[in-house]
């Protein structure tokens, strides 16, 4: 087996459920989100995976997901590294707004552009390109070297920070990455070569994107 890297988007949060732009705001998981995180941990355990280190963001929903996964694995004592570089995309002035209210205020087309374009940020916030510009250097400096040393690494983070990683790992172009959706609580298991190239990829739980 090659070098192991597993990516997991946090379980459903309170604001996912309420259809709010979340970004760097800090709601916790819903009951459904807790169950999604536990299910991710069980799926990893059933597949025989264990880890040497985990990485997560400084936001509660990702940390809670990470903790629940490790509890299911019986690895509560695993070293956990938390860094703002893995935070969700900052939605700026949209943060905390209901997505339908935002469409009423700025128009459907403008909100769609902010949400789904690669390099157009919402007011006061980050584009996906901006998010990748902080996620990828951190990944290449801090996370990938540990994977390539043979450490088994878990990353519990967010839809857009993980899209940035998948974009690089899967060699996606801008059009492909803006069409990419990552489901909550569904582990993405990568096996990498010693050069960091993807040898295999599988998603352990098929779950609808939300």
UniProtKB/TrEMBL annotation:
Active site: 10 (tele-phosphohistidine intermediate), 88 (proton donor/acceptor)
EC assignment: 5.4.2.11
Record-marked site positions (Transition state stabilizer): 158
Pfam families listed in its UniProt record: His_Phos_1
Record-level GO BP terms: gluconeogenesis; glycolytic process
PROSITE patterns per the UniProt record, alphabetical: PG_MUTASE (PS00175)
Binding site for substrate: 9-16, 22-23, 61, 88-91, 99, 115-116, 159-160
InterPro entries noted in UniProt: His_Pase_superF_clade-1, His_PPase_superfam, PG/BPGM_mutase_AS, Phosphogly_mut1
Keywords, sorted A to Z: Gluconeogenesis, Glycolysis, Isomerase
Key word Isomerase present: yes
Superkingdom, taxonomy of origin: Bacteria
Stored SUPFAM superfamilies: Phosphoglycerate mutase-like (SSF53254)
Enzyme class at the top of the EC tree: isomerase
NCBIfam families for the chain: pgm_1 (TIGR01258), PRK01295.1 (NF002339)
Quaternary structure (record): Homodimer.
Function: Catalyzes the interconversion of 2-phosphoglycerate and 3-phosphoglycerate.
Family listed: Belongs to the phosphoglycerate mutase family. BPG-dependent PGAM subfamily.
Name this protein carries in UniProt: 2,3-bisphosphoglycerate-dependent phosphoglycerate mutase
Species: Tepidicaulis marinus
